[in-house]
Amino acid sequence: MLAGPVTDARALDPNRLPSQYVREQWTIETRFPGGAVNGIAQTADGYLWIGTDKGLIRFDGFNFRPVSFASIAAASNVPILQLLTDAGGKLWIRPQGAYLVRQKDGKFESVRYDQGAITVLSKDNHDGVLVSDVEQGTFRFTADGVQKLGPTSPSNLNGRNSRRQGLAGDARRWPLFS
Prior knowledge:
This protein is mainly beta. The chain has no helices and 14 strands. Strands 1-2-3-4 form a four-stranded antiparallel sheet, with no helix packed on it. 20% of the residues are buried.
C-alpha cells in the first residue's frame, strides 16, 4: 500500500477545449530535416535538441537547424543515440561510436575517459551524469571530474553472457541479457 499526500498535476488547463491549444506536426514536408528520432532534451536556454539517425538537430520553436560538432570530426554528422541534460542544464550527447560529447559554454567538446562501447547515459541522484560502458565499467561525471564506480562488466553472470549493462538513477548497475 502506498500512502502520502496527493496533489493534482494536470498537463492541460481543464477550462480549455483541446481545440483551443495550438499544435503543429512537423514532417519532412513541413521543415523537419528527417531521420528517426532517438532522443529529445531541452537545455536551460529553452532550445530543444533532437537526436536522430541523421545527426543532431536544434529546434528554437520555429526552425530546425542541423548541428555539426566541427571540433570533433569523428563524432560529427553521425547518428545520435541518446541525449540528456545534467543538473546544470548542460547537454550530453551520445553519438554512434565510442564518443561522448558535452555542450559547455555554447561549444561542443569531447569528454575524455577510458572510452569503450557506451551503452547508456543517465542522471544520478547527486547532480552527476552516469556513463555505462561494457568494456570499461561505469563512470560518474560531476563538476569536479570523473570517478570510476565499477569494474568492467563481468563476462559471465549466472551462466549467461552479459553483453550490455544499464544504469538505475541511483547508480546501481543492472545487466541486460541478449
